[in-house]
Amino acid sequence: MKMNDEYLKTIEDCSRAIERNPSNRFAYFKRGLAKSYLLDYHGAISDFSEVIEIEPDYGDSYRNRGVAKANLFDFMGAIFDFDKAIEINPNDALAYFDRGTSKFNMQNFQGAIADYSIALDIDPSNAKAFSHIELAKTYLQDQGAKKENSNKSGISLAEADYFLNSGNTKFEKQDYLEAIKDYSKAISINPKYGTYCNRGLAKYNLQDYYGAIEDYNSAIEINPEVFHAYTNRGLAKYLLEDYIGALVDFNKTIEINPNDEDTFLKRGVAKFYLQDYKGALIDFTMSIKINPKYGEAYSNRGATRVKLQDYQGAIDDLSKAIEINPTDSDAHHNREIAKSKL
User: Fold this and answer.
1) H/E element holding 310?
2) Which of 38, 146, 170, 337 is the most exposed place for a label (fewest CB within 10 A)?
């Protein structure tokens, strides 16, 4: 059960479902999530946009599209989507937290503090929101000095932004080699963590996983709180069969953002591959606790229960996965295996 194979299979299943019914909101949403896991953020944005076209009041699509935009460092676009998600559901703590993180990355520390505080009010158990408030306060105190230093080299910074934007344009066209050249020029002028992340993602898309890891290392060195850098580095390590290294990175992502059901799923799959089935079961259960409608988590937990010979539990989980996503062929297959063992 390799992660990329699972997500590619999900994309294939959802694409067939969309061919049969072009108005299948669920299939677009599920495919968008799978594309996000594979770091195809542009494709994810396209699918979440289709969901919004079909059902404009589906807040989760705005939030997930915002997360995809933030991963492409389109923080303004992300904030627009988080605003809409919050308008639809004013109690969406994750949307406030994610919007706060986008504001933080834009160095709007006061705005970030306000959003993290609301997220904490809605979900007082979110200890990470509290720690992010303290971190934003620290950065806010230093902001004046940083602005003064930036003004001294305004021309150079403008040139770096030019190459960054040029690289982003080429990235969107999937011209990753040329994008890397522009990102490298931007880094030589102004080595920002966001540019390292962009270059790392371009290298990842070219299957240069070692190069991607090096860039994520640099991004993390500059800003240790960039949780998606740990996530993407973990995925690159996973594809290099460094499963222990991947687990370490997923652990760090969860430490920074403990309400991310996707990372619990990724870590669970890594544990499954390491034959730590009990550990995988715990992670898939956490993923479901955060998002009780997460079909893929039920499917993976069901497959794990088969390995643990809990066949009735497996059937229950796999049946739930099929109820959420009737096109999940792996869930159908694994349920038949579980039934045959009873």
Assistant:
1) none
2) 146
Whether 244 and 171 share a structural domain? yes
What's the number of domains the chain is made of?
A: 2
> 8-37 pLDDT, tens per residue?
888 999 999 999 999 999 999 999 998 988
Q: According to the 3-state scheme, what is the secondary structure of 128-168? A: HHHHHHHHHHHHHHHHHHHHHHHHCCHHHHHHHHHHHHHHH
* Phi, psi (deg, nearest 5) at residue 25: -60, -45
Tokens of 311: 């066949």
Same domain (yes/no): 234, 170: yes
Q: Contacts from 289-292 at CB under 8 Å and sequence distance 24+?
A: 290/259, 290/260, 290/261, 290/264, 291/261
Do 103 and 111 touch, CB atoms closer than 8 A? Answer: yes
> How far is 18 from 307, CA to CA, in rounded Å?
32
- The parent domain of residue 239 ranges over 154-258
The Cα 36–Cα 284 span in angstroms is 18
Average pLDDT, 10 consecutive residues per value, the chain (342 residues): 72 92 92 87 91 92 92 84 94 91 82 90 79 76 53 62 86 87 90 88 91 93 86 91 91 86 90 93 94 91 96 96 88 93 89
Q: How far is CA 21 from CA 24, 191, 321, in A?
A: 6, 47, 20
Count of helix runs (H) and strand runs (E) in the chain:
19, 0
Tokens of 293: 């409608």
The SS3 of residue 315 is helix
Which residues have a Cβ under 8 Å from the Cβ of 106 and sit 6 or more positions away? Answer: 75, 76
Residue linked to tokens 């806010």 = 140
Report the share of the chain in percent with pLDDT over 90.
Answer: 51
Q: Are 49 and 62 in contact (CB under 8 A)?
A: no
Residue 298 and residue 232 share a domain:
no
73: in domain: no
Domain CATH number, residue 313: 1.25.40.10
